[in-house]
Amino acid sequence: MLSIESISKSFKRKKIINDLSFTAEAGEIVGLVGENGAGKSTLLNILATTMKPTAGDIYLNESNYRKDIKTIRKHIGFVPQDIAIWDQLTVQENMVFFEKLSWKNRSKQQLQEICMDMSLDRWHDPVKNLSGGMKRKLNLAISLIHDPTVLLLDEPTVGIDLKSRKEIGSYLRKQATENGKIIIYTSHDMDEIKELCDRVITIGEDPFYTELLKKAGKKVLSF
Amino acid sequence: MKDVFITRFMLLKKNKISLIIWLLAPIAVTIAFLATANTVEDDFTVPVGLVLEEETNSALELYEEMKESPLVTVSLLSEHDAIRQVEQHELDSVFIVKQGYEQAIESGDRRNILESYYSDRSFAYNSVKEMIVSIIQQETGRVKAANTVMALEKELSGSQKWSKTEIITKSNQIQAEEDLLNNEFRYLGDKFSSSNSGIEWNPWMIWAFAAMLFTLFLFDWVIKERNAIVGIRFYFAKIKFSNYMLYSLSFYILLLFIIDLLTAAAFYLLYQNSINLITLLSYRITICLFSFLLVCLIRKTYVSYVLAIALTLTLVVLSGALLPFGGIGVTKEWLNLLNPLSRFLSGEWTMEWLGLCLTGVLIWYVWEEKKYA
Ligand SMILES: Nc1ncnc2c1ncn2[C@@H]1O[C@H](COP(=O)(O)OP(=O)(O)OP(=O)(O)O)[C@@H](O)[C@H]1O
Ligand SMILES: [Mg+2]
C-alpha cells in the first residue's frame, strides 16, 4: 500500500501541490489527470523519490520515504515523461545496460520478453533509428527490468499506436491484478483513463476533468 | 565494478573511432612534432664545402670545429667538385684551406690562408665566413699565447719544460672543461634548452602537453552523461550515479595508463628515452582527476574543448616551451610549483596537484551524494 499523507510542493513561492492525500492499494491502477502544468509530473517525481515534497509524508507499506529511501527505490519503477534511453545503443544494448545496473539479474531472453510485452520487436535496431512510439515502448520496458512493485508512469503511451496501447494496457492490468502491483498512471487520453483505471485523482483548479470522469461513472478524488 | 566496466565498454564501443583518435593522439602528435622539428632543424643548417689542400693538424682542427657548429653541415670535397656544387647551388659556399695553412697559423700570419667561392644565392656566406674567421682567430690566439708562455718561461727560468703542443693541448683542455661546466649549469637552470647541438626536444615534454589536451577532449563523456536524461534512472539502480562516475573515471585512468605504458615503450625504442613509471602514473592520475573536475563544472561540450585548448596553450607559455631557449624568463620557483608539467618533466611526483585533485574529487563526491539522498 502506498499512502500519501497531506503532501505539498512549492517551487519558490509558487504552490503546485497543496495538501494532497490518498492511498493506492496493491492491485490498483490509479489515474492521474489534470491540465498542462497542473503538477502531475511533479507528484509522480515526488512519489518516485526524485523530488522532495515541501511538506507531508509518504509511506510504502511500512517504509517511510524520509527514512528508508534506499529500500523504497528498489521497489519503484518510474517511467519519466522525457524519454530516458541511450540513443546510440540498440534496443538490446539498452536493456542489457540497465539490467547490469539493476537490482535484479535478468537473462537476455527475459529482457526480450519484456520488450515483446510492450510489443517492441526491433531488438537489434539502434534506438536513433526507432520511431517516437517505439522509443516510448523502450522507455517503458527499461523501467520494468527490476520487476518493481510500484509503477509510476508519466504519460507512457504518448504517440503509441492504438493497437500497441491496448496491448500495453492489458499488460499493466495483468501486472496489477495478478502480481499485485500498484500502478499510478498519467495520461491526457480520457478514453484510456476510463478504460484502464480503477480510480482517478484529478489535480488543478479547473473542475472540467472531474466532471467529465464522474459523468462516465469513475471514482474521482480531486485536489 | 565489473558491471560498470561492462556498461562503460558498451558506451565506448559506439565511439570507437573518436576514442582511438583521442587515445593515440598524444603519442602521434609527439612523434610527428619531433620528426618535423628535426627536419626543420636540418633544413636550417647551411651546406658548406671545405677543401683541404693540406691535411695538417690545424687544417683538420678547423674541419672538426666547423662540424661542431649546429648552423652548418660541412662536407669535405675536392676543389673541382666543390666549385661545381656551388655553381649548382647545392652548396651555399666553399672554403679552400690553402697549402701552408698550418705554417701561417704558427707564425701568426693570417693572410691568404683561405680562399672562398660563393654564388649570388649564397645567403649565409658572410655568417659562415665570420664563423670560420673566429675559429682561426681562436687557433692563432692559442698559438700566440703558447709562444708568449714559452718566451716568459725561458726568460724567467732559463729552461724550456713546456712544448708548444703541450700548452695548446692544455689550453684546449681547460676550454673543454669550462664548456662542460657551462652546459651543466644551463641544464639545471632551464630544463627546456640544451647546449651544444641546437634544440634537443624531450619527447615527454611534447607528450605532456598533448596528453593534457586530449585527456580533456576525451573527458567530454562526463558532460554528456551528466546532461543525459538517462541520469534519472540511476535513482533506481544498484549503483549510485556518483559511484558510477567514479568507477568510470577509474576505467578511463586504467585505459589511458595502458596506452601510456605503450607510449613509454615506443619512446624508449624511438628515442632511447626512459621514464620513471611512478612519475608517469602520478601525472596520468593527476590530469585525469583534473579533467574530470574541470568538466564537472561545465555544461556544454564545446566550452570544454575551447577551455582545453586555452589551458594547454597557457601551460605551454608558462613552461616557456614556445621559446626553447629559456622561455620568457619566468622560470620562477612559484611558477614552477603552479605548473604541474614542470614537476613531471623533472621526473618528480606531481604531489601537490595530485593531492589537490583528490581533495577536489572528494568534495565533488560528497556534494553529489547530497544531491541524490
Ligand atoms: N524544477 C522546477 N522549478 C520550477 N518550477 C517547476 C519545476 N518543475 C515544474 N515546475 C512547474 O510546476 C508546474 C507543474 O509542472 P508539471 O510538470 O508537474 O505539470 P504536469 O501536470 O506534468 O504538466 P504536463 O501535462 O504538461 O506534463 C508547472 O507550472 C511547472 O512550470
Ligand atoms: Mg507532466
UniProtKB/TrEMBL annotation, chain A:
InterPro entries: AAA+_ATPase, ABC_transporter-like_ATP-bd, ABC_transporter-like_CS, ABC_transporter_ATP-binding, P-loop_NTPase. Belongs to the ABC transporter superfamily. GO terms for molecular function: ATP binding; ATP hydrolysis activity. Pfam families: ABC_tran. This is ABC-2 type transport system ATP-binding protein. Residues 2-223 form the ABC transporter domain. It comes from Gracilibacillus ureilyticus. PROSITE patterns: ABC_TRANSPORTER_1, ABC_TRANSPORTER_2.
From TrEMBL, chain B:
GO terms for molecular function: ABC-type transporter activity. It is found in: Membrane. InterPro entries: ABC2_TM. The keyword Ribonucleoprotein does not apply. It comes from Gracilibacillus ureilyticus. Residues 17-342 form the ABC-2 type transporter transmembrane domain. The lineage of its organism: Bacteria, Bacillati, Bacillota, Bacilli, Bacillales. One of its GO terms (cellular component) is membrane. It holds the Pfam family ABC2_membrane_3. It is a multi-pass membrane protein. The chain crosses the membrane at residues 204-223, 244-271, 277-298, 305-330, 350-367. Keywords: Membrane, Transmembrane, Transmembrane helix. Coiled coil: none annotated. The keyword Transmembrane helix applies. This is ABC-2 type transport system permease protein.
